[in-house]
Design brief:
Mean pLDDT: 79
Number of strands: 0
Low-confidence stretches: 1-17
Shape: globular
Helix content: over 70%
Number of domains: 2
Strand content: under 5%
Radius of gyration: 19 Å
Largest sheet: none
């Protein structure tokens, strides 16, 4: 029998054992989320999935989807919720604040600077065209991230067919029928939770 993985030396007492790399410190969290935020032009979801899952391997794809699902049903910006959940898991309140601070501090300065520039050049046709082009790139990034995350559905407790149906119905309700996000999250999310609970209960 192989020995259980040991918790990170920098993790707080009683933290769960880690089977993959973990943040080394609150400073590591702050710097990592600062770099993630500075790359997130047009949306942070694609960047944060690549950085946390593929590069740093702090989360598996399945864990990322679970954490992102929790972040979506909490009030406030999803990515901020996710950063705080990850930071709190490893270093408690200090970790949550470090991750959130890294996510917000540098981008705030960038946004303020860009707002001043935009106010000066907003009416220039070339600037308007550039912003439309960036919107197309952002849509592509979100679509690509969705495809990456969908690979984890094969390991879900629900059958793949059920996962695909729920995902398709969610897309139709949000994109075409324009049902409010909260109704879709709690409605279809509730259905998914009930189905998963019925399959997991002894």
């Amino acid at each position: 029998m192989s020995p259980s993985p040991l918790p990170s030396p920098s993790a707080p007492p009683g933290a769960p054992a880690a089977a993959h790399p973990v943040p080394a410190s609150c400073t590591d969290l702050f710097v990592s989320f600062t770099l993630i935020a500075l790359q997130g032009f047009g949306g942070v979801l694609a960047v944060i999935q690549r950085e946390l899952v593929e590069r740093k391997r702090w989360l598996t794809n399945e864990e990322f989807i679970e954490e992102w699902s929790v972040a979506q049903i909490l009030p406030g910006p999803n990515v901020c919720n996710l950063a705080m959940v990850i930071g709190q898991r490893h270093f408690g309140l200090a970790g949550a604040m470090s991750a959130l601070g890294g996510l917000l501090a540098a981008p705030l300065l960038v946004v303020l600077a860009l707002a001043l520039v935009y106010a000066r050049f907003a009416e220039v046709p070339a600037v308007q065209g550039a912003l439309r082009g960036m919107a197309a790139v952002a849509a592509g990034l979100v679509a690509a991230t969705g495809l990456k995350m969908s690979a984890a559905l094969g390991k879900n407790v629900l059958p793949l067919v059920a996962c695909v149906v729920i995902a398709a119905v969610s897309f139709v309700l949000l994109a075409w029928v324009r049902v409010p996000l909260a109704a879709v999250v709690f409605g279809l999310g509730g259905v998914g939770c009930v189905l998963a609970w019925r399959r997991l209960k002894p």
